[in-house]
Amino acid sequence: MERSGVDPGDSGSSSPSLDGLPGSPGMHRNPSPPPSEGEESAEGDAIGNTVYSKHWLFSTLTRLIQVVSDQEGGSGAGDSEAQLDLDEEVESEICKVWDMSMDQDVARFLQEFKAADILLGVIGKSKSSRLTEICVGVLGNIACFPETCQSISGNEDLGEVLLLLLGDSDPPTLLETSRLLLTCLSQPSVAPCWVERIRQQKSVCENLCFVMSSSTNVDLLVKVGEVVDKLFDLDEELMRSWIRGARGSAAPSPGHPTADREPANDTPALDIAPCVLEAAKQLRSDSPDGLEVYMHILQLLTTVDEGIQAIDLPLIGSLIRVLQYLGECQQRETERREPGSEEEAGDNHLKILKDTCCEFLANILTELPKDTVSELVQRGYLSEETCSTAVQSLLSLYSTATRHFLAVLSEVDEKLAEGLLKDFPSLRP
């Protein structure tokens, strides 16, 4: 799938971009689904213990199939990529199915009715981004229950299409696709099959990196970050392969279940750390929870040698800037409080985030060689101000890492190191 409509710099384009979600379900609540015509409904028409009508649901799904058939027949040969508007009445009805699918009885009924295959066909033929978004959203609701999630996850064709949708140019569709993937990855019984699919589909890594590095949409960045965080937490080998920039199936370590497979061809290196960092930078003032997710991803990267080697110089400087920003936030919070107030200073989320940043930075500084420190100083990432911020943040809990950093710094820039010793005399031998 092409990304022609996702250029964040093309603000004058009429194509969808990754900035903003004007029609997403997070912005506008879908209308409530219809009951099954009250007491006049035929006996047995209700779905499970609900008041929802089987007949109405059949009719709506049938209508949905007709909609995509009409879209396919109504587009010319040169309009294969053109997006069509969804009829408001049709959209309203399908949104009711979206809401209904949050009920377990409805989800189970949809599974028995082979709705996943129907929705797969609709997604494959749809020329409406909104229609695709809603269909993926329904699948995401169905996947919230273990039994129905098992059924969806066993559909190989559906799995392949959903992973390809991560390359879509429509932000709401990307958001719902990411939500569905996270739901499946959070189910222990089906997570391994999804990890394996992702391992084999090289476009997943590059598409997620593209979103992280170019989107300014908070909801989308947070959800994509949660997917990446979950993947790395589930499978260290997948994380290693993404750090190496190879295909998901490439070169697992000895002993891994896929170690006896023939490695796939390598693709050009993908810079995971800068993409994660760019997303974290975008979220730092809008979503403390989202920023915490990305800090945890970066922390996971440092648990393997490849990750430490992949972390570049700007990342260290940016971590220190994050600590500076958090310090400023806490200072503003302290100044905001009235004298004598017993309100606890700072937000708990900010404290958790600061702790994560400090642990991450301490891990890096412990392994930092002299030549890297020298380059950090030369490029301006390590200055009197940034060094002071780092030492002040780390000294109480990570004194070993702080002393190692100071020892290396003294070999590179004795004046800078001496200034730190003056400000923090407890560091003197």
Defining key terms:
elongated; 429 residues; mainly alpha
Written overview of the protein:
The chain is an all-alpha fold and 429 residues long. The chain is built from 21 helices and no strands. It has helices spanning 54-74, 88-100, 104-112, 115-125, 129-142, 146-153, 156-164, 171-185, 191-200, 203-214, 218-234, 236-244, 272-283, 288-301, 305-310, 313-336, 348-366, 370-378, 384-394, 399-412, 414-423.
Report the sheet-strand fraction.
under 5%
Straight-line N-to-C gap: 60 Å
Order of helices and strands: HHHHHHHHHHHHHHHHHHHHH
Enumerate how many helices there are, as a single number. Answer: 21
Poorly predicted runs: 1-41, 246-270
Total strand count, please? 0
Work out the oligomeric state of the chains in this entry. single chain
Radius of gyration computed on alpha carbons: 26 Å
> Which word captures the global form?
elongated
Largest sheet: none
Structural class, please?
mainly alpha
Helix content: 55-70%
Give the overall average pLDDT.
80
SSE topology sketch:
Blueprint: H1 54-74, H2 88-100, H3 104-112, H4 115-125, H5 129-142, H6 146-153, H7 156-164, H8 171-185, H9 191-200, H10 203-214, H11 218-234, H12 236-244, H13 272-283, H14 288-301, H15 305-310, H16 313-336, H17 348-366, H18 370-378, H19 384-394, H20 399-412, H21 414-423
